[in-house]
Design a protein that fits this description.
741 residues, 33 helices, endoplasmic reticulum, TPR_rpt
């Protein structure tokens, strides 16, 4: 362990702050970078992980969090992503409870605060990795590199690559994982806070606590288990002060015998055994929890893993590593999604992009050479532990151990960026030592870099405030990414701009000709625009590419029904139901098809199935009442209407239909009550005013009838039949006036 100050630390162009001041400064910088995302919306993956996740709601049993994946699907399901993060979901649920619903401000604020805390704690982590581990009389960690650790922590707090993890609410998984990762490492260091002068003393209890915190990190995100690798490297390199280069020379060349007794005396084998046993136990438990094995990803998610041969796979994996390294070096081109053609595959050794692979490995080999062979023990330790912190947390995302479901994901760099920031601060410290006459220039450069980082964070976190700005910001970064165009189009369609959405959906299909979701959405818009032939072609192609795409089958059925291809439409609906057993909307549309064919019993059965699967399916209930009313089954229509209102008591459309039925049954008082209740909910319904007027007309309450006819005509002057009824009423009123003496 190093007990003297790191020699380059005093040259770092920063003031030497007290520990509390340093942490407050770093936390404030972290807040400054991302505070403008506090009032952002739920965007991108937030929809699935939070908005549509039933595990957040108080009505859902808390035990479901431990049985379901991050997205709310059962882990035993083949469609599950197997991302088991119950502690992260638990914090989402707490946010929901505290806010009384899905209000994004609380979710965002907690993310920002977590990043600030993690950034402040990074000072302690960097201090140990750079300056060594030592304690004062009170048991507090001594920082032998206060300026270097502060600079590295400032770089970490302000690094723009963190925006996805902080401004995107689902990034909570990365933040919590990083927090427990830090606590596990710092707790492991506590094991060596010796109460005596004996060097062989360490606390097994603190090692066990460190393992428990590692398990907590893993329950926030799978990447958390990598802290065991960092702890082991720290133990070997810093606690036991092993020179890896000399050790390898001894073992390979057998120059000197390796002193096993010295290693045993330090307790290293015991600690490594404890961590190995704990790590294997966590991996086994994780594997058992997954149930059906690893998740199944498609070529779209990770095309390199489906490359023709292993050479191309290795080349493309390494190209992905170089792109990740570039995001750390120059975090200007950031994108919410890097799949679907955003990064074209390297298919031959003559591709010019091979240069980036060679450059990456030249830099890494140079750093490794310095880390292993340098005569300077401080440099050797700092470089080695910096590389460990850079590489080890990235290992789960490197495609070596298992296939991952992405090409590049900025969020997985959250922990690895700490290693990069450590190496960057170390490099600047060395520059300050060697180029003392350029100290002012280096100071200005450091300040400028921090300002650029902060400005980029502010801009990028602003882009993450809404889906519109997030998706459009990706267009210049990944113009070949079909998913980017799809999401821009979907956002436009959701905001009512279907005309503009069509262009983006067409571009998504052009870039990725088998993009069935883009075809489905484009087909829906064309259906609404009555361009039925093209809509049918697109939807037919979508189901031919993905035969189990239930939504596309249903939409194809709707189009075919509109084209009066009734047999084909019925087959399409039943295909949709075959692939999605519980599909109430499809039963509803099937009922409409049967109603168009005057197959009334089949229509009623289909709508009844829809209400069984979804009891609050208002349209299905209402159509049953209307169909029974139109076919003269008024008693049954009344019964269905009352049943529907017991389930959805404030549905004004069902009240309206039931009121019409009761009026025909001459139950005028009850009918009036339902009409008036419906108007309290929807006072601007011209049809409701018109039909209430007809009721009063029949009932003999002519002045009230006149009032509601006039209200109906004021809301809709072209209301069919209303003006004729109103004129008839006026003639009757005039006739009554003339008869009055």
């Amino acid at each position: 362990m190093a007990l003297s100050e790191v020699y380059w630390d005093r040259q770092i162009p920063l003031p030497k702050l007290a520990p509390v001041q340093a942490k407050v400064t770093v936390a404030l910088v972290a807040l400054l970078c991302f505070i403008n995302s506090y009032d952002g919306e739920f965007v991108f993956d937030d929809s699935e992980a939070i908005v549509n996740n039933k595990d957040l709601k108080p009505t859902t049993p808390l035990s479901n969090i431990w049985r379901n994946d991050f997205w709310g699907s059962n882990l035993s399901s083949n469609s599950s992503h197997k991302s088991y993060r119950p502690l992260t979901v638990l914090t989402f649920r707490l946010n929901y409870l505290l806010a009384g619903g899905l209000h994004p401000v609380g979710f965002h604020m907690l993310n920002i605060i977590l990043h600030a805390v993690i950034s402040a704690l990074m000072i302690d982590v960097f201090a140990i990795l750079i300056g060594g581990l030592s304690y004062d009389e009170k048991g507090s960690i001594l920082n032998h590199a206060p300026k270097t650790s502060l600079l590295a922590a400032l770089f970490f707090a302000a690094h723009p690559v963190h925006t996805e993890s902080v401004a995107g609410i689902v990034g909570r998984a990365d933040l919590l994982c990083a927090l427990f990762f830090q606590l596990s490492f710092l707790t492991y260091c506590k094991a060596f806070n010796r109460g005596s002068d004996r060097d062989d003393r360490f606390s097994v209890q603190w090692v066990v606590v460190s393992l428990l915190l590692c398990a907590a990190a893993m329950l926030c995100k799978e990447q958390g288990i990598t802290v065991l690798g960092v702890n082991a490297a720290f133990d070997v390199l810093l606690i036991c002060n092993v020179n890896v280069y000399e050790l390898s020379q001894r073992l390979l060349l057998r120059k000197n015998s390796f002193d096993v007794s010295e290693m045993l005396r330090t307790g290293l084998p015991t600690r490594l055994a404890l961590m190995g046993l704990g790590g294997l136990s966590m991996l086994y438990a994780r594997w058992r929890i997954m149930g059906t094995g690893p998740p199944a990803f498609t070529e779209v998610d990770n095309p390199a893993s489906f490359a023709e041969n292993i050479f191309l796979r290795i080349v493309n994996y390494n190209y992905y590593y170089s792109l990740n390294a570039w995001l750390l070096l120059c975090p200007w081109w950031l994108c919410f999604d890097w799949s679907m053609g955003c990064v074209p595959l390297i298919k031959s050794a003559t591709d010019w992009r091979m240069v980036w692979l060679l450059l990456l490995w030249c830099v890494l080999i140079g750093l490794i050479n310095q880390a292993l062979c340098s005569q300077d023990s401080q440099r050797r330790r700092t470089l080695t532990l910096g590389l460990v912190l850079l590489v080890v947390p990235f290992l789960p995302a490197c495609n070596v151990f298992f296939r991952v479901g992405f090409v590049i994901a900025e969020r997985v760099l959250y922990l690895s960026s700490a290693g990069y920031c450590l190496l960057l601060a170390y490099s600047l410290g060395l520059c300050c030592c060697r180029w003392t006459k350029y100290r002012k220039l280096l100071c200005a450069s450091v300040l400028a870099l921090l300002c650029v980082y902060i400005a980029r964070c502010a801009l990028r976190s602003h882009q993450w405030r809404s889906e519109q700005s997030l998706f459009t910001s990706a267009l210049p970064v990944c113009p070949l990414n079909a998913k980017v165009h799809y999401n821009v189009g979907k956002n436009l369609a959701d905001r009512g701009n279907a005309t503009a959405a069509v262009g983006y959906y067409r571009e998504a299909v052009r870039l990725h000709p088998t993009y069935v979701h883009a075809m489905n959405n484009l087909g829906n818009i064309l259906k609404e625009r009555n361009e039925l032939t093209e809509a049918e072609q697109l939807l037919s192609k979508a189901v031919s590419i993905q035969p189990d795409f239930a939504a596309a089958w249903m939409n194809l059925g709707i189009v075919q029904n509109s084209l009066q291809k009734f047999e084909e439409a019925e087959k399409s609906y039943w295909n949709a139901i075959r692939f999605r057993k519980k599909y109430p909307d499809c039963y509803y549309n099937l009922g409409r098809l049967y109603a168009d064919q005057n197959r009334h019993v089949d229509a009623l059965n289909a709508w009844r199935n829809a209400t069984v699967l979804k009891p609050d399916h208002s349209l299905a209930w209402n159509n049953m009442v209307i169909l029974l009313d139109n076919t003269g089954n008024l008693g049954q229509a009344e019964m269905i209407g009352r049943e529907a209102l017991r389930i959805i008591p404030n549905d004004h459309t069902i009240m309206f239909s039931l009121a019409n039925v009761l009026g025909k049954l001459q139950k005028y008082k009850e009918s009036e009550g339902f009409f008036l209740h419906a108007l309290r909910i929807n006072p601007n319904s011209a049809s409701c005013h018109g039909n209430l007027a007809v009721l009063y007309h029949r009932w003999g309450k002519l002045e009230l009838a006149k009032k509601h006819y006039e209200l109906s005509l004021k809301l809709d002057p072209e209301a069919p039949g209303t003006r004729d009824n109103y004129n008839m009423l006026r003639r009757k009123l005039d006739q009554l006036k003339r008869q009055t003496p």
